[in-house]
Amino acid sequence: MNVTGYAGIELARLLAGHPGVELVSVTGRSSAGQRIGQVFPHMANLDLTIKSELDEVDLVFSALPHHESADQLIPFIEQGVSVIDVSADFRLKDPGLYDEWYGFKHPAPELLKTAVYGLPELHRAEIRQSRVIANPGCYPTASILALGPALKAGVVGGNVIVDAKSGVSGAGRSLKLSSHFCESDEDVCAYAIASHRHQPEIFQELAGVSGDITGVTFTPHLIPMTRGILATCYAKLNNNVSETDVTAIYHDFYRDEPFVSVVSEAPHTKHTSGTNMCLVYTKIDHRTGLLICIAAIDNLIKGAAGQAIQNMNLMLGLPEETGLPRLAQFP
Amino acid sequence: MNVTGYAGIELARLLAGHPGVELVSVTGRSSAGQRIGQVFPHMANLDLTIKSELDEVDLVFSALPHHESADQLIPFIEQGVSVIDVSADFRLKDPGLYDEWYGFKHPAPELLKTAVYGLPELHRAEIRQSRVIANPGCYPTASILALGPALKAGVVGGNVIVDAKSGVSGAGRSLKLSSHFCESDEDVCAYAIASHRHQPEIFQELAGVSGDITGVTFTPHLIPMTRGILATCYAKLNNNVSETDVTAIYHDFYRDEPFVSVVSEAPHTKHTSGTNMCLVYTKIDHRTGLLICIAAIDNLIKGAAGQAIQNMNLMLGLPEETGLPRLAQFP
Amino acid sequence: MNVTGYAGIELARLLAGHPGVELVSVTGRSSAGQRIGQVFPHMANLDLTIKSELDEVDLVFSALPHHESADQLIPFIEQGVSVIDVSADFRLKDPGLYDEWYGFKHPAPELLKTAVYGLPELHRAEIRQSRVIANPGCYPTASILALGPALKAGVVGGNVIVDAKSGVSGAGRSLKLSSHFCESDEDVCAYAIASHRHQPEIFQELAGVSGDITGVTFTPHLIPMTRGILATCYAKLNNNVSETDVTAIYHDFYRDEPFVSVVSEAPHTKHTSGTNMCLVYTKIDHRTGLLICIAAIDNLIKGAAGQAIQNMNLMLGLPEETGLPRLAQFP
Amino acid sequence: MNVTGYAGIELARLLAGHPGVELVSVTGRSSAGQRIGQVFPHMANLDLTIKSELDEVDLVFSALPHHESADQLIPFIEQGVSVIDVSADFRLKDPGLYDEWYGFKHPAPELLKTAVYGLPELHRAEIRQSRVIANPGCYPTASILALGPALKAGVVGGNVIVDAKSGVSGAGRSLKLSSHFCESDEDVCAYAIASHRHQPEIFQELAGVSGDITGVTFTPHLIPMTRGILATCYAKLNNNVSETDVTAIYHDFYRDEPFVSVVSEAPHTKHTSGTNMCLVYTKIDHRTGLLICIAAIDNLIKGAAGQAIQNMNLMLGLPEETGLPRLAQFP
After folding, report:
1. What residue stretches are annotated with the Semialdehyde dehydrogenase NAD-binding domain (chains A, B, C, D) (predicted)?
2. Cβ-contact D86, D63 below 8 angstroms
3. CATH number of the structural domain A6-136+302-316
4. For D259-318, how does the pLDDT look when each residue is reduced to its tens digit (9 = 90+)?
5. Is D138 a catalytic residue?
6. Minimum-distance CB partner of C42 among D42, D44, D330
7. In which residue ranges of chain B is CATH 3.30.360.10 found?
């Protein structure tokens, strides 16, 4: 549902190349009746018409805006259709956070208990059993994968800082001055400082990993590039841990993960472009006793559409890697 | 052979995802002994070591620089191994043009007669039968696909102009001031005006399509983007032809082509990114009697690695589309 | 009038640093009442409030959209105030062209006869005497300066082709999908092919230089950069002219021009950034008998605000270079 | 001395437009004998030849690499010529830090005591009296201006974090893979994590402001833009301070500064482009008790050449703003 945004159309593209599913129906709010290639010329080779209502389906992805997504998905959930929600509407466990951060009263707070936060590296077993998946936000995906192993191992705690850098596609396809080429090109700026909606999501999941975390300061930045998120995270090391120890912790944590690589040099977002990979790197600043953890992803794939398909593969019992690139389009 | 450039590594990436072949061996001049992920971190998920010499193979791609490519390929050709040369060494039929434009005496002029210029849209049948394929240059691919149908139909003739715009990856991975970010970002310039090596290649192939062409003026430009070529071509309409006629000629010419689309709006290079597609568009300027033909490609795929694989598919009798994306990575 | 677009605010910035004038009043349609730094933070150091109506002034610049500009300027012209119109409303001599190309009936066709086309390199003497200056369009500035000397000298004629490349700022600050960062970044495309409004303007002025010109084919392209225009022009050499002859013609033509340099290497738009300079270069393609002339400008300065100030300097009898940078901000 | 890098040539450009000085002589290591426009076409309008040795001068700027800069400046200092060193060679007070961080033994450790760190906002009075100015590094300029007022006022302390983002021009004009357009475009990465040479410089100056600071974690990032640095800084608030208090502290601190603006929205580097301005912004994260301070500068101007001229103005008793733009080239 709703392929007319960047995450939605990327989902359509990846599903079109997925050998295990058939993309039977796409919807778009303002473009119903048009062929997909009229809205997105890069998809002209796909013979699909955008509809206003879904056909009968086995599984629904929603790339609708928050609030609207829950409203549209609830009937499907009640009919027993599996749903993967790319919006934020089922991510937070505490219904009150929707009032506080998103400004609406959640229409089905009881569903928040059963919905599973779709980060396979943390919740793979529950995802396999669930019918309602809350696909993680782009910034939380990078931040949680960067900090999770150190928190889990108990080597860091307290307040953590996430200084994140995102390409402009994260702000969507709708028109705003901050996405105008002439304003964002050759520029970098922070936004939504200490007030971004992904902050409670990052905190909820990291607090689920370890009770040692007490808070998250989250500062997103807009970078003059189209795709990619780099999350540079800072956490206080709470005892004498060596570089070798930390590296071992991360390699252990991600040993069997198909889409996370622990790398030995500071990662580049460009090396993830077009893939579902997350590249994770750690470094200790011995002078200040901080652990610096960095994660790089393609915000539209591991940060949205690709992770949704990874979740779908798990729900349907398909091999987890199916239809998901692991080699980047570079340069 | 030689994966250490941008075309070479793109070839390795596409071959790694190709279901009908096995990538058994890669070489690189200066990086022998390194794992492929050490030179190109975006390829770290591919477990291959770069060698100095090829193993025993059925088919060789060469992405070596010109002259060196011929020298290395000739022994393979003599042993009956099929070769696809991404360099320019087998593209020109007249050996004298190598002295004139490339500054070396061709080491095997007799092979130039049997080598096939690997543009499937013009030479599909010969490619299927050949053992030596000269993979077209990036600019010629776009220029010939833009102008070919009109010349073939006899509606244009005389001197043609190709004003082409290329992303910086066309200049390769080696270090030069003109590829320095700070010099090429926020800049556009022409280069090699009336003296670029792709001029004789474009002329040779278009003259093969129609004797009505008398010359090519070719002006390449460097654009601050990584991938993509747009060729804007101008040719004198030699009689009263309508927009409808021209459109019909192009649709007829490319009717069954899997990798050329005749589009109804001026094409964007970005809509070809990551694909083997060429988007072609035509428009008549009635005031001046010119036909304007525009083609957009991804210079590293349809303009290099993808077309090489398209040729390989034809040589090996595989379905032509195998392993070649048709939906772009966008945005 | 109307500083809320890119050309308007650049005019305000340059006037603020101009030693010979005082910027007394700025207007903006939707931002009246705001301080200039609220609309444009880069201008926060300038203490000016945007008004809805002009104060009493000696000279008015208008950066309003076409049609509206004429409507607003006519009263000032009637009161004898000098005006420099950055819009197109006084550029075309033939009133019928406004119906044909701009879709409105010109409100004061008699003024078109007395208004002077403000390209100092062609019309310096008239500009000095005039009260109504039509400031040239960005593409016409580059195109006319590139082709003018060769036409004047009679070495080229017939139909000419202008293949122009512009940064995104040329499309203005208003929001459109084609100016969205994610759509224009890493992309190049042609637009308004054989139908751009600058075509009749280029033709009018070049026809004024020489009756030998019979038509103009004009193809603008959008380039992923903020500022700059490169016009690559093609014209048939009508007799045996050498490279040396052409170079001499251009050097002669521009010998005393403070803002045109004839350069010996193909020019980069980046080398004009922030300046009022136009860099001009020529090259003969002997194979096809074409002259290739290239001009590079900063579209917002020599292509708009800077040229307007150059015209003002001439009208006010100030040294022509006053307040206009000649050294580029680079890189 | 040494105009062949980006900081050096920007210094030459600004000095050429400075009304109070005459640029008599420029040197460049590899380009001696060439006109300045041959090395930098954007400077072609300046009639200067690059020399191998300086003429007789009153004041020398050095934009040489570190170590070489000290070696070349020492003779001038000994002759009583005023010097402004854009390199790092006189910035650190402790000679041992040159061994540790720069890998060379300082040739004149006694001069480190008398050299003044040329950040006018901290050391204006000493700069006026000094003959040897160590012009601050680009990252330190932004970091110190962001954190200085809060430290001075005693509202923050402990370890601070500086997460900085720089355009590619900060890496210089020399050729490296990381400055290749195709590698840095559409990419963001961290580098020199916990090991960058600007770390001791930031710490030295901030420790001079307040003994409450115990350490600096400094993480620079490379951003796909040419100019600009954004420093996002995090410091623990050590008592109950309100947003209003902090804002007042910053406004007080910078009240009379011509080149620092305390802004009310998160600053954009683009709004400083071409100027000597530093834009500073603060925000409290009440959930975690952190102060977030952000500074934006043009790395080549306030971060290098412009600050050098600001220092020169102070040394020569000229008005401090002379020759230094305060309105940005935007967009």
Report:
1. 2-130
2. yes
3. 3.40.50.720
4. 999 999 999 999 999 999 999 999 999 999 999 999 999 999 999 999 999 999 999 999
5. yes
6. D330
7. 138-299
